[in-house]
Amino acid sequence: MNITEDVENCNSGRKESITEPLIKVSNHEEAYHLDNNNSGGSMFMVLLSTFVAICGSFAFGTCVGFSAPTQSGITSDLGLSLSQYSVFGSIGNIGAMVGAITSGKISDYIGRKGAMRMSSIFCIVGWLAVYFSKEVVSLDIGRLCTGYGMGVLSYVVPIFIAEIAPKHLRGGLATLNQLMIVSGVSFTFIIGTIVSWRTLALIGILPCCVLLFGLLVIPESPRWLAKAGLQKEFELSLRKLRGKDADISQETADIQDYLQTLEHLPKAQILDLFQRRYLVSLIVGVGLMVFQQFGGINGICFYVSHIFEAAGFPSALGTVIYACIQVPITGLGAMLMDKAGRRPLLFVSASGLLVGCLLLATSFYMKAHEMFLEAVPTLALTGILTYIGSFSVGMGAVPWVIMSEVFPLNIKGTAGSFVTLVNWFGSWVVSFTFNFLMSWSSYGTFLLYAAVNLLAILFIAKMVPETKGRTLEEIQASMNRS
């Protein structure tokens, strides 16, 4: 996701748009081989830089996962009502929306490292506010701060990884972002069943500190340095990443050529997205994010322990099982992305989400009408595991991949900003309304999510193209005809 802003270049005195991740896909780059650059030293720096960056993804995951195992502890310790806890659980998404909107401009003014450093500080301050909370206001302020940091990280971490990685490693390293987010969620779920919510807040600070100190030893994105006009620093950073004996002349030339291409592209405004030639791309990108969120993922993820309690299944055990299946299935989905294709993964995923919601609806219907009560906990567990397994294999990551593929270069920044905002807004709506829906009708809630996932299957069949094995230019030429 990219956000296009005009930024003053203090070295050259000219305004430039530098929010696009400078990843060139061209004949030059396809002809460029990095085999000579794969010395141990260069690979070590690329991997170290990636590890430091994905500590931000892990921190992101701990923020997302915090509200699920802590609901009982926080509500009893601070005396929160259902509505107050719903505000706490969802207000992080408000902060994330603001973070996502401002992240492009921030990461352009102060660099990718600067943006990650700033977001880690916001998260640390937020976690401390949560830890020291004695009443609901400071609790919400802390959650809002961590949410803002989460929103910035959701933009800058994948951009940074893409901009530092050699092309033959870019896909594999990029998947680590989603994998570490899920790992952070799972870690928080498991540890949250063992420690108090205040201790869990302190633990959430740890990946932020690793990120903060790790940024001291890794280089800035060479592509951002080039776009900012810092030629000497650009070459030093690229050499540090590729190795002191590597020939970086071709990659340097490719990046400079791409910069010149960007300078001749018109700057896209938000209304440009609604032009007829971009409308199909916009419908696909926004539609997938709407179905991803309104299918219920953040309601289930944020309040999974409450769902288990309501179904009569031990919440601690259920949360641990939930956490343990997320990571391997997300890894499986990443491996299948370029083999099975995007559409098959989406079909399997959305179908599994539908089945999971129907199983949950059935279990709560049986409980409400006192039918086969001994089967209710097992059926609820099966429904939740089916749901989260299905989400992890497809609907979690594939919409982000397709979003990055279907928009042409000249509108990708603005489109990415808009689509990301839609995603965070949907996340907020679902996480805020979930507890109220459950109070209205537990089985009705999951029937509602099931209906959304049924519509998602129809949407994928009708609107979503298969992008596997096609160049970005081929995808955009087929979709964005004027």
Automatic annotation (TrEMBL):
| Ranges annotated as spanning the membrane | 44-70, 82-102, 114-133, 145-164, 176-194, 200-218, 278-305, 311-333, 345-366, 378-402, 414-434, 440-461
Q: Which InterPro entries match?
A: MFS_dom, MFS_ERD6/Tret1-like, MFS_sugar_transport-like, MFS_trans_sf, MFS_Trehalose_Transporter, Sugar/inositol_transpt, Sugar_transporter_CS
Where does the UniProt annotation locate this protein? Membrane
Mind listing the UniProt keywords for this protein, alphabetically?
Membrane, Sugar transport, Transmembrane, Transmembrane helix, Transport
Q: Gene3D superfamilies from the xrefs?
A: MFS general substrate transporter like domains
This protein's record includes keyword Coiled coil: no
- Would you name any one GO CC term? membrane
User: Quick check: keyword Membrane in the entry?
Assistant: yes
Q: How does it sit in the membrane?
A: Multi-pass membrane protein
**Pfam families to which the protein is assigned, alphabetical:** Sugar_tr (PF00083)
What are the residue boundaries of the Major facilitator superfamily (MFS) profile domain, all occurrences included? 49-468
GO molecular function annotation: sugar transmembrane transporter activity
**NCBIfam families assigned to the protein according to its UniProt record, in alphabetical order:** SP (TIGR00879)
Query: So what family is this one in?
Result: Belongs to the major facilitator superfamily. Sugar transporter (TC 2.A.1.1) family.
The protein's name is Major facilitator superfamily (MFS) profile domain-containing protein
Native source species: Papaver nudicaule (Iceland poppy)
